[in-house]
Amino acid sequence: MNNTCDLEKRLQTIISIQRNIDIITAFLLLTGQVTVVRLIVEPKGFALSVDGPLTGIGRLEGISGNKTLSLLLDVGDIL
């Protein structure tokens, strides 16, 4: 019984950490600090690869500073 309680506490801790990482990532995407550069689809889910000023690489922007294309990139990040 004690092992079950310990396991549940550990699982709750892991879930909490994952949720915090998700919230931080969403905040960084919405503020433009990172942008999605690659979407990897796997059999059990998907993964995102991000770059931006925070990682030391320039943020993705529209060709020649085109604001419409930059807006489309931002909408894609939010989705």
Structure description:
The mean pLDDT is 78. Helix content is 53%, strand content 19%. The longest helix is centred in the N-terminal third of the chain and has 30 residues, at 2-31. The chain is an alpha+beta fold. It is built from two helices and two strands. The N and C termini lie far apart (43 Å). The radius of gyration is 17 Å and the shape is elongated.
Q: Largest sheet, described in full? A: 2 strands, antiparallel
Q: What order do the strands of the largest sheet run in, or round the barrel if closed?
A: 1-2
Low-confidence stretches: none
Number of strands: 2
Rg, rounded, reads 17 Å
Mean pLDDT: 78
Q: What's the tally of helices? A: 2
How helix-rich are the residues, as a percent range?
40-55%
Q: Report, as a whole number of angstroms, the end-to-end distance.
A: 43 Å
The backbone outline, from C-alpha atoms, is elongated
Question: SSE order in H/E notation?
Answer: HEEH
Structural class: alpha+beta
Residue fraction in strands: 15-25%
